[in-house]
Amino acid sequence: MISQNVRERLNLGANLFAFSHGIDSTALFYILEEAGIKFDLAMVDYNVREQSKSEIESAKELADKFGKKIYTKSVFLDKSNFEKNAREVRYEFFGEICQKFGYENLILAHQFDDKFEWFLMQLSKGAGLKELFGMSELEKRKHFWLVRPLLNLRKKELQNYLDERGLRYFVDETNLKGELKRSFMRLNFSEPFLDRYFIGVQKSFEFLEADRQILMPNITKISDEIFIIKNDSNAIRGVDMAAKELNVLLSKAQKEELSANLAKQTSVVLSGKIAVGYADTYLLVTPFCKAIMPKIFKEKARILKIPAINRGYLFAINFDLSKLNSNKHLKIWLLPEALQTKAKIN
Questions:
Q1: Which of these, 60, 114, 113, 58, lies nearest to 87 by C-alpha position?
Q2: Where in the cell is it found (predicted)?
Q3: Residues 73-81: contacts with CB under 8 Å, at least 24 apart
Q4: Residue 262 near residue 217, CB atoms below 8 Å
Q5: Are the beta carbons of 283 and 231 closer than 8 angstroms?
């Protein structure tokens, strides 16, 4: 049930599982256990249902039975914008736990129904390609990875998995009323549609994801301000996306300037703030900074083939260049050109 990419990611570091004891997360709990993947639990009680206390207690019993740590948080939220506020509180709590205790992966129990539901909700708002496909198996965040192992399975399959094994789970009755926006979308649109056309929708998502991989730039985020972008037909869009994260909006003229420099195989500084370093098959994007660097630093940067335009910033923040050298994307960057075509970029 768990893809190879997800399995490899979860075996790389400590895992925290965002648990609710509903159908999806309870099924994933046992699926992860069967796969031999280690994880601990984190759970939020919003205090809007009497049943939530039983869910927390049952989750603690489950954690104790399987020898897992469990972190819980109790919150009281205003009913206005409840879904939005609950999501923010939830992820803030999970993020704090990941940082404090060194969890590298946050496991989420989103499944195919959630993915399609998200698609429809974004479509109803007027969204672009990136927003329409907001859910992916692996997603890098600032301090951890989001990991979604269930995106190819329907909720009904997960419920059957639990029922066949007689495993205990809870059903949130608010999801059955359609009062909240997501439950309204689920009950009236996504669920009935998938019941009729699941196979076709599943195939369409596969085609759309393949197209997205072609259309979207290949970006690796090394830190909040350091980006590696594959130098292909989508490179300019990739630099534009990185620039936005660095709080710079590129004008049409600047994009044309960037295009001209890439054609000449040269690096460029945009808006006096962003350094786009040319490195053949890849671009290194960082803030621009002038600095007087010692010879030992400059020599190490030269050996690693780090573009000169980026070196001042890396030196100014005391960045450990060995981290770039150990990064798998830069390992490919540093390979001889004849071998680069054989290397797999994830």
A1: 114
A2: Cytoplasm
A3: 73/42, 73/43, 73/44, 73/45, 74/44, 74/45, 74/47, 75/44, 75/45, 75/46, 75/47, 76/46, 76/47, 77/46
A4: no
A5: yes
Tell how strand 70-74 and strand 40-45 pair up: parallel
118 by DSSP, 3-state: which?
helix
CA angle 19, 24, 28 (to 5 degrees): 70
* C-beta neighbour count of 241 within 10 angstroms: 18
Q: Which two three-digit tokens encode residue 137?
A: 């198996």
C-alpha torsion 177→179→183→187, nearest 10: 60
Find the length of the chain: 346
Q: What is the pTM of this model?
A: 0.72
**Radius of gyration, CA atoms only, the chain:** 23
**Helix or strand run (H / E) with residue 282:** strand 282-287
The answer to whether the beta carbons of residues 111 and 155 sit under 8 Å apart is yes
Residue 231's φ and ψ, nearest 5 degrees, are -85, 80
Question: Hey, which residues does 145 pair with through a beta bridge?
Answer: 105, 140
C-alpha to C-alpha distances, 278 to 158, 228, 246, 261, nearest whole angstrom: 48, 10, 18, 9
Q: How far is Cα 276 from Cα 293, in angstroms, rounded to an integer?
A: 19
The 10s digit of each residue's pLDDT in 246-303 is 999 999 999 999 999 999 999 999 999 999 999 888 999 999 999 999 999 999 999 8
